[in-house]
Write a structure and sequence with these properties.
Order of helices and strands: HHEEHEEEE
Number of domains: 1
Protein name: Ketosteroid isomerase-like protein
Strand content: over 45%
Shape: globular
CATH class: Alpha Beta
Structural class: alpha+beta
Number of helices: 3
Oligomer: single chain
Pfam family, one: SnoaL_2
Organism: Spirosoma oryzae
Largest sheet: 6 strands, mixed
InterPro entries: NTF2-like_dom_sf, SnoaL-like
Number of strands: 6
Strand order of the largest sheet: 2-1-6-5-4-3
GO molecular function: isomerase activity
Length: 122
């Protein structure tokens, strides 16, 4: 599980969508829960890949840094420090060249040697 998470985060930081998809189960369930009250849920590798591809150009740089990681069998919880530079004005009010920093928690589950669930809370 540790290797899967590290590979996923490294690919994310490189904006490498094929690298992210390589460690995901075909039936991946992805949830992003924001403290603004919005939630996005995706099911399946294709839906995840489409969303990830749309998001890549929105940030000139982006980085997830693992602060704390707890792994138990096929589950893990990690505390993430996230930083990015916005590439263009976004509908949520973020402006081009704005630097953002967030802290959050991600929950991972694995099945059949791949990541089968990611729930991001920020």
């Amino acid at each position: 599980m540790n290797d899967l998470i590290n590979a996923y985060i490294q690919a994310y930081n490189r904006k490498d969508v094929p690298g992210m998809l390589a460690v995901l189960h075909d039936d991946i369930r992805f949830e992003n829960v924001s403290n603004t009250g919005s939630t996005m849920t995706l099911t399946g590798k294709q839906a995840f890949g489409e969303q990830a591809t749309q998001v890549v150009p929105l940030f000139s740089t982006r980085r997830q840094e693992i602060v704390t990681k707890i792994i138990a069998d096929d589950r893990a919880a990690i505390e993430i420090k996230y930083s990015a530079v916005v590439a263009q004005d976004l509908p949520n009010g973020w402006k081009a060249n704005q630097q953002i920093e967030l802290r959050g928690v991600s929950i991972f589950e694995s099945s059949d040697g791949k990541i089968s669930r990611i729930s991001d809370y920020s």
